[in-house]
Amino acid sequence: MRAVLILVVLLLGACTHVVAPPPAPPPPAPVAGEIRDLRTGQVLTADQLLTALARPSRLIVGEQHDNRDHHAVELWLLEALGGQRPQGSLLLEMLTPDQQPHVDQVHQAATPPADLRDALAWQEGWDWALYGPIVRFALTQPYPLLAANLDPLEIRAAYTHPATPSGSRTNAEAVKTELLKQVSESHCGLLPKSKMPAMLAVQQQRDRRMAERLLAAPEPALLFAGAFHARKDVGVPIHVLDLGAEQAPTVLMLAQKGSEVTAQMADYVWYTPVVKAPDYCKEMRKKLGGRRKK
Fold first, then answer.
1. CATH number of the structural domain spanning residue 153
2. What angle do CA 256, 258, 262 make, to 5 degrees?
3. What are 24-57's pLDDT values in tens digits?
4. Residue 193 DSSP symbol
5. Residues of the chain with pLDDT under 70
6. With the CA atoms of 206, 231, 227 and 40 taken in that order, what torsion angle do they form, in degrees rounded to the nearest 10?
7. Which domain holds residue 69?
8. How many structural domains compose the chain?
């Protein structure tokens, strides 16, 4: 009789055992294009990339700020990675420390505000039509949405009193030369030479702040930033190493087809379709009245 009772208990236990359902498949990638592992040269599917990006504790995605496809990929990554493992935090170059209390208040609110953009004190320089969907999604998630940039006053101070962050990688001449070239090109060659050291200091101080915030953020941590901030050879990753981290963050670069992205710049690249951009240099020359650098 005792043996029969034990058998019944075992059978009941087997009947109540619940097998956890497998994770839902990720949504289809929103943008067509070639994805490549720059370390091996292998072409990847979006799902293969997702599997690879779910492993590192720190991930940086480099974007072209005005490219709608890049923001669609970022939102897809954020949603899909969360389906692979719990997300620890999301950091944005587009948010500053003085906005963090607004972000936290909205995140903790029972209902979202009627005008989310105003509630976050969102800065005009970042196109809300592009960043709004990412921010809205992040604010519905349990993990924190974190500011990764300098405050305007800090940027002003870095410009007025230029200083280079400490670290052998950060201070390498090749790094400074490449960043100065980028600063000049991004200002269409119109920036006076006398202003170049100050602009370089601002760029590197911003990179250092993003590195500090990334190291302090709950893991796995994900940072969305401009392409030059994301670059492994000159951007946030070398600051992470100069701050004492044993390993650099993994970098996915989003770039339009035809752009040059090397293994020194990133671990992975997603080439998106070419999109015609406005002639920003023409507009800048018009604003400056054709003034040239001195």
1. 3.40.50.11550
2. 90
3. 677 888 888 999 999 999 999 999 999 999 999 9
4. G
5. 1-24, 288-294
6. -160
7. 27-288
8. 1
